[in-house]
Amino acid sequence: MKSERFERGSKKINELMEGADQKTIKGLGKIAPDLGNYVLEFIFGDLYSRPGLDLKTKQMLTISILATLGNAKPQLAYHINCGLNIGISREEIIDIMTHISGYAGFPAALNGVSTAKEVFAERDKEDLETKPS
Amino acid sequence: MKSERFERGSKKINELMEGADQKTIKGLGKIAPDLGNYVLEFIFGDLYSRPGLDLKTKQMLTISILATLGNAKPQLAYHINCGLNIGISREEIIDIMTHISGYAGFPAALNGVSTAKEVFAERDKEDLETKPS
Amino acid sequence: MKSERFERGSKKINELMEGADQKTIKGLGKIAPDLGNYVLEFIFGDLYSRPGLDLKTKQMLTISILATLGNAKPQLAYHINCGLNIGISREEIIDIMTHISGYAGFPAALNGVSTAKEVFAERDKEDLETKPS
Amino acid sequence: MKSERFERGSKKINELMEGADQKTIKGLGKIAPDLGNYVLEFIFGDLYSRPGLDLKTKQMLTISILATLGNAKPQLAYHINCGLNIGISREEIIDIMTHISGYAGFPAALNGVSTAKEVFAERDKEDLETKPS
Amino acid sequence: MKSERFERGSKKINELMEGADQKTIKGLGKIAPDLGNYVLEFIFGDLYSRPGLDLKTKQMLTISILATLGNAKPQLAYHINCGLNIGISREEIIDIMTHISGYAGFPAALNGVSTAKEVFAERDKEDLETKPS
Amino acid sequence: MKSERFERGSKKINELMEGADQKTIKGLGKIAPDLGNYVLEFIFGDLYSRPGLDLKTKQMLTISILATLGNAKPQLAYHINCGLNIGISREEIIDIMTHISGYAGFPAALNGVSTAKEVFAERDKEDLETKPS
Lengths: 133, 133, 133, 133, 133, 133
Fold this sequence. Notes:
- Six copies of one chain form a homohexamer.
- Chain A has seven helices and no strands.
- Chain A is mostly helical.
- The mean pLDDT of chain A is 94.
- Chains in contact: A-B, A-C, A-D, A-E, A-F, B-C, B-D, B-E, B-F, C-D, C-E, C-F, D-E, D-F, E-F.
């Protein structure tokens, strides 16, 4: 039986991306089941479910942290997608990357834009949102 | 004669902290005058003055980026102070650090809290804001 | 009422350093209570309490990760202390730092040795262990 | 109308790689126009155009910084190409990576060599320079 | 003539992976011969050949350092392979990545698992070890 | 008996700072003797003694790498001192930090300037060089 935190995390991750709980479990459950549980329990059941900052702000922070780290491309693409799903605009994603240039340097900013570009192109193909005019 | 970007940056940095333009010039102007100019022109005249994200959001991003980098303590303390000056609450600062724990790890989060604690204590001594009850 | 994970984490952290649960709560409980809970629940109640690697191995990994990060000095000092408490020798701590030189570079290794030196000196003063001859 | 700094940056970036200003504008202009301008204005119009260090020294520094960061592969490849264009030899590129091994660790050095190798192979195909005997 | 350290390093690297000395020399010898020598002499002839920690412990440290750095994927894959060759189990590799999540953050842990997964799959294809049931 | 590489490294480190070999051995020899040897043998006996880049260029690279890493302050101060000893000017040190701002971000550049300032002040007190007018 899954814990209350796991259930709360599952619900929260699905707010950001439909069906993401199943995808996480499928991807990590076999090879690293504890780590898969921690993603749902700690990241989404604790950090994302605690009060304080609203969901959009948390998501903008996550994107800026991941772009700053610079070696977390799969996670950055994932969270850009989540951000777009909950109403962060493409322009805001690019604004975050642009702001990063001064603090984490231009390479981090440029690679962040490059990841965003790939996510945008993927979504355009899948017609998930109205293309920016 | 100072450029338009420099003047715009001076005005913007002073919104975040009164008299910060003079302090920057005093601190960097003699030893690294070009770098001092770039701080005012590029960071505050360009990044902070461009449209898009509002000032509070930009400041929260700056704080999360600096705490993620983990080796930018003087800048983090400075920008926590700026953030408090423009209406980010102490609780929100701590919320940012807490959120960071999952992505940049607990040491980055704990050291961010530690820097925030020092800034809060300094401000309590200087009576710059109402203490949280 | 504290969760079962919290209780398990308290017990585990105290295995590494007597009374460390109270010190964590005292240090973080007021300013960042959720983060304080996560330290006990996630780091010690989950990661340190899960089966698999034995305690000494986990502690050597923690020390190598913190020395590699290079910007986690308070946490590194803390975990060197914990390591010595559970039977890792001073020589092994230095062996870890020496090994790091090839992968994270000499500055990380040298700063790790420097932190270890401070911890060793502190413990010598407090007479916590037999000094190496 | 483009600023004087933009024009200066365009000219400078083209010294390093013919037509690079147009390529930058094409790549970033649509998705992140402000960031594209900053690349030309700040990186090339300010940093690369200021007096002090000569162009070759600046370029060697850029290469060492990017290889040290370790997560800036596209920028590293770009700047290795620029370096070769202005007369840095392949041997000097490899000397930089070799020197890095002691400070940023062997992985950074080895990945730097690997990026250099790809750039060299690409240039050999395009016959851009005399192959080393 | 190769130095004594080189010979010692060759022997040691081959304990971790059969024929790895020749592969290193082949890969680096032409383009970066000094760096290739340092890999064998310093990393394997010095660090891996010095007394103190046993080989398995050194290898677990190397894996945790590389996963923490986060931008050393080829080296991480290489050393996961070496670890499996000398008797570290797949479960232990995953345990290391899981432990990392708390200190270097979840992205480092998740990317470490992802690299491990690729190594495991490659080995399954080559039938190098018994598949975990 | 010390190896040839050790003797060569001792001589080289003393070119950069008089008596630095004895200081290194004194600082590391007791607590981490192997690491102390590797500093002299590998960093100064191999990297700094190999042909290719001249000493001044190597030293400028070392300074830029250490400032980029951002968590190597004692080593950065040390190598700024070495650089000044062999004829790199204070202005060139500041030029390096200024150049870094675009690639590793402003915090790395500002903290590099701050370390340089401390080294310059220390040297002014000790009257080691003519103060810049």
